[in-house]
Specification:
Blueprint (H helix, E strand, L loop, with lengths): L13 H15 L6 H8 L3 H8 L2 H23 L5 H16 L25 H25 L9 H20 L4 H19 L5
Helix pairs in contact: 1-2, 1-4, 4-5, 4-6, 5-7, 5-8, 6-7, 7-8
Amino acid sequence: MPQPTRGRPRAFDRDRAILDAARLFWRRGYSGTSTRDLTAALGLSTSSLYAAFGSKAGLFEEAVRTYAERYREIYRQAVTEKDLRTVIDRILTDSVHEFTRPSDAHPGCLLSSAAMTDSTSTLDTSAHYAELHGWNERALHARIERAAQDGELVAGTDATALTGVVQSIVHGLSVRANLGTPHEDLLATARLAHELICRHLTSPTP
């Protein structure tokens, strides 16, 4: 009598596993997320989880780095634009798009998550995010200084203060996104902020 055949096991999807783990970490923090929680959410055995990521801490670190780097990429691309008006527009609108990506492709906003107040023995989340934030801020500040040299800004504009304004708006958008503010409302806020910044800081056309 022929023996029944077993179905093939579900293929391991590393990107999906990191996304599902990030959702838990973002919501509960590192300490509040148990290995049992992770294996249940990822559909993995404890041994398989350790084989793939080394440890719970290793999985947490990979999740943080994977999603935090998306924010760096927004700035990396924006500062290459030819004029400051477009740079600021891209930072604000692309941030809104990132903060409100569909839940099947994004775990939520790291900045406003429980993970920001937690850490592991291998990764200090707050320190890592501070490094990322510092990189973004330096990149934007350097681009604003270049715009000032090119005559795009009203004479005497404080590049540091302008950088702070943009960063504060981005952080505010992040918090509101985490509270469930709809995408279109956040986008309207970003567009108005962009309009106000450009109105007061762009040099008038001769």
